[in-house]
Design brief:
heterodimer; A: alpha/beta; Rossmann fold; 2 domains; six-stranded mixed sheet; disordered C terminus; B: mainly alpha; ABC transporter involved in vitamin B12 uptake, BtuC; 13 helices; 69% helix; 1% strand; globular
Chain lengths: 518, 324
């Protein structure tokens, strides 16, 4: 590899967002004319890194070279001028503009647009032919399919003279057919000497399309590999990383009758995209069912549907003798009355109201309970006593019910929320990311409590992206990838490598590995 | 017959005069909202520029200096709105309401300090006002039946700001739909991220839009105190800024449709004055208040989706915060 072959070089790029260290001294070099994959779990810092390269964010420190020239971007303008184009995960398109207007925006040429549009039409027709990117230029973006919108984004980059094209999770919103089409376009671009950086967490894509791959984990660049000299198993291990197992004593589960039976669930997320399809499982009392998967593979959507926040579009859920279908829905309050407790994934946004006091957070969702509500007014004294007893039971510090919720540490906020849900003696607990952003002491405490609930005969559904957490708590594990269940294992028999492969849905495609592991 | 014809022409003529501040204010709002900033402070800007223009015209003896001063006053308020809602990403409605309150208070205090009268400026003499101009050819066409009356009463005999208002509208249309600035303006109101990632500054675009709005709104205020009337009077805008907002929604943020809405609302205003006290057989006296409330009622019906659909720019009222 000679110097002149390098398109992008990042040296010790560092970026903080407040207390979060999004990029920790990251190094990366990308060869001209290759397809370079960057893999890592969500939140590993891939998108931040590429947004720095695209000038959307500025690095705190570090050096960037583009085609061997020092490069510093204060906005995307400089990046575009340097020949970098980016297709964001959420498209940066104006919905009610035509394709042509969207492409021209930002590189209009003159002060009047009629001439710019005419020139762009000629150039785009040429580009579309050259790369097989045909799209009707006069259609409004909102009338195009997602796959077509992505084409517009690629065309936009090429029109602005991109020699390096960054694509952030490009297949996340595409159908398999559209993905194949996209990969065909990649090949065409590569043939013309365009360098492609592909951000993804799907190992199959990495293996099938890239020349080189770099792995990120928790803000750090942990490995660089030639794709032909690595395998999905190694990449999965690098992505997830080996973590110290917290040692939690756990007796064998005494599984009882099913508390929740999910059959062939199909669920759309808030944007109306199908995130869960044909998912079936059951959760039994006295047992912890872990749902594992890389973030964004449908577990969050599933959790919301189980908690009554999102409706299901197909299939059914049986809870405590009630059957939920697309026509017969139960809202979160009705579910709560059935004995279902929900600890949401996003503590800050759904679990509490940061501007409320601790005692108010401690009654959210149970505000109609007779013990604290007497019709019009809340019983202030009971509200306070209620919170105090929770704080004592769950060791929440400081134990001051009048303190604003936002003033507690993440671990104590989480303990308060768990206390609220656990203390009502539910029969089924749906718990999302119980220890995310929580200090190590609290992690142990929380996990012990979850096991105590199991031993008390409760059914528990645990969704976590921490594989280690799933493995140390669950009695049975269901793995999700792309909205489908890609594997079921007994907790005692689970190992990281197998789960990692299931999470990347790489088992079926790798027959040799399948034979070795199962 | 000729009586009805004449009174129709006169009502239309009155509508044109009432329409002018609505046009300027709604075009100002159009720029702001197309850029994604809600401008509920149009009323305050109209009021402030009306007061400053009248004051400057009295002191310096020229309506043109009044015009300049009014434009500056309104633009300053527009920049205050920008500072709060663009740079500091504050709530745009709160900022706009604050500007309305500020203008109402400042005009009272300043008039007391400068002219020793609360909420009133001295009356402007003809040298200090924008006066009606007779268009050329009036003598020739005056004797032609029907056309003569229309030309004399409706088309000729307005002051320069009235003509400016009707010239501004096609100019706004041209800027918004035919220029690079207009393309970016429309884009930033729909999806500021798309603009940012295209390498264009969202903040600077929005400031420019607000500044243009400040200037236009300023002219509207100047018209009220130095052309339509001959002095500033407390609360003389009487809700024009809000009617202009209603016209903006009614006209779906499109210059020509907004112009039509302004004219409709002005016509309702003019007719309500004419119909005062008139008794219609079987109905009784026409409730003038009902006619005056019609612009708001129509806007609510429109917003409820009964007549077409009013879809505001998508990023309207949202401060732009950079995040993925």
């Amino acid at each position: 590899m000679t110097e002149s072959n390098i398109a992008i070089e990042l040296i010790n790029v560092d970026k903080h967002f407040g207390a979060v260290h999004a990029n920790d001294k990251v190094n990366l070099s990308v060869q001209t004319g290759t397809i370079h994959g960057i893999v890592g779990e969500n939140g590993a810092g891939k998108s931040t890194l590429m947004s720095i390269l695209y000038g959307f964010y500025q690095a705190d420190s570090g050096q960037i070279k583009v085609f061997n020239k020092d490069f510093r971007a204060i906005s995307s303008k400089q990046s575009i001028e340097a020949g970098i184009g980016m297709v964001h995960q959420h498209f940066m398109l104006v919905d009610n503009f035509t394709v042509l207007e969207n492409v021209v925006l930002g590189s209009e040429g003159g002060a009047l647009i009629s001439e710019s549009l005419a020139n762009a039409r000629i150039e785009l027709t040429r580009l579309a032919k050259e790369y097989g990117l045909e799209v009707d230029l006069d259609v409004a973006i909102e009338d195009l399919s997602v796959g077509m919108q992505q084409r517009v984004e690629i065309l936009k980059g090429l029109y602005k003279g991109a020699k390096v094209l960054i694509l952030d999770e490009p297949t996340g919103v595409l159908t398999p057919q559209e993905s194949d089409e996209l990969f065909r376009i990649f090949e065409a671009l590569k043939k013309q000497g365009v360098t492609i950086i592909l951000i993804t967490h799907k190992l199959r894509e990495i293996m099938s399309i890239t020349d080189n791959v770099s792995v990120m984990r928790a803000g750090k660049m942990v490995a660089h590999r030639e794709t032909s000299k690595t395998n999905p198993e190694e990449l999965a291990e690098l992505m997830i990383g080996r973590k110290v197992l917290l040692n939690i004593k756990k007796s064998k589960a005494k599984s009882g009758s099913p508390a929740l039976i999910a059959k062939n669930l199909e669920i759309m997320n808030e944007q109306g995209l199908k995130r869960v399809s044909d998912v079936s499982f059951e959760a039994r009392s006295g047992e912890i069912l872990g749902i594992a998967g890389v973030t964004g593979n449908g577990q969050g959507t599933l959790l919301k549907a189980l908690a009554g926040i999102l409706p299901i579009s197909k299939g059914s859920i049986e809870i405590m003798g009630e059957t939920i279908t697309s026509n017969n829905t139960l809202n979160p309050e009705q579910l709560r009355n059935l004995g279902v407790a929900h600890v949401p994934e996003d503590r800050q946004r759904m679990g509490m109201i940061s501007e409320f006091t601790a005692s108010e957070t401690a009654l959210l969702g149970y505000h109609n309970d007779k013990t604290i509500n007497q019709g019009v007014w809340l019983k202030r004294a009971s509200v306070k006593a209620n919170c105090e007893s929770m704080m004592e039971a769950f060791d929440v510090r400081p134990s001051n019910p009048n303190l604003m919720s936002s003033n507690f540490s993440g671990g104590n906020q989480q303990k308060l929320i768990l206390a609220r849900e656990f203390e009502r003696d539910p029969d089924l607990l749906i718990i999302g990311q119980p220890t995310r952003g929580v200090d190590i002491g609290a992690i142990e405490f929380i996990r012990k409590r979850i096991i105590e609930m199991r031993d008390a005969g409760k059914a528990i559904i645990l969704i976590s992206v921490e594989l280690e957490e799933i493995m140390s708590l669950s009695d049975r594990i269901v793995v999700m990838c792309d909205g489908e269940i890609t594997g079921t294992v007994n907790g005692s028999e689970a190992d990281e490598a197998t789960l990692g492969m299931m999470m990347a849905n790489a088992l079926e495609s790798e027959d040799s590995l399948k034979g070795a592991k199962v | 017959m000729s009586d009805i014809f004449l009174s129709t022409v006169l009502t239309l003529d009155a509508s044109v005069r009432v329409c002018v501040p609505l046009i300027f204010a709604s075009m100002a709002g159009l720029f702001a909202e197309r850029s994604g900033v809600v401008d509920i402070g149009l009323e305050g800007k109209l009021l402030m520029s009306a007061f400053i223009a009248a004051s400057a015209a009295v002191v310096f003896g020229s309506p043109w200096i009044g015009l300049l001063a009014g434009i500056i006053a309104s633009s300053v308020l527009a920049m205050v709105h920008g500072f709060a809602s663009i740079t500091y990403k504050g709530n745009q409605i709160v900022s706009g309401v604050a500007i309305n309150i500020l203008a109402a208070g400042l005009t009272m205090i300043l008039s007391l300090a400068w002219f020793k009268k609360a909420g009133i400026t001295p009356t402007l003499n003809n040298d200090q006002r924008f006066l009606s101009i007779d268009l050329p050819g009036l003598d020739l066409i005056d004797h032609v039946p029907i056309l003569g009356v229309i030309y004399r009463e409706l088309i000729s005999g307005h002051n320069i700001l009235v003509y400016l208002a009707f010239v501004i509208v096609p100019m706004v249309w041209w800027v918004v739909f035919k220029t690079r600035f207009g393309l970016r303006l429309r884009a930033v109101g729909e999806n500021p991220k798309a603009v940012d990632t295209a390498g264009i500054s969202v903040e600077s675009l929005r400031y420019k839009a607000l500044l243009i709005g400040g200037i236009l709104c300023g002219i509207g205020g100047v018209y009220l105190s130095t052309a339509y009337n001959a002095q500033f009077v407390k609360d003389m805008t009487a809700g024009s800024g809000f009617i202009a907002l209603a016209a903006l929604i009614f006209g779906k943020w499109h210059p020509y449709k907004v112009l039509a809405a302004c004219f409709l609302f002005a016509f309702l205003d003019a007719i309500s004055i004419r119909l005062q006290g008139i008794v219609i057989p079987g109905v009784g006296e026409i409730p003038v208040q009902l006619i005056e409330a019609t612009p708001y009622i129509l806007t609510i019906i429109l917003l409820a989706g009964f007549i077409g659909k009013a879809v505001p720019p998508k990023a309207s009222a949202q401060p732009y915060i950079k995040e993925l």
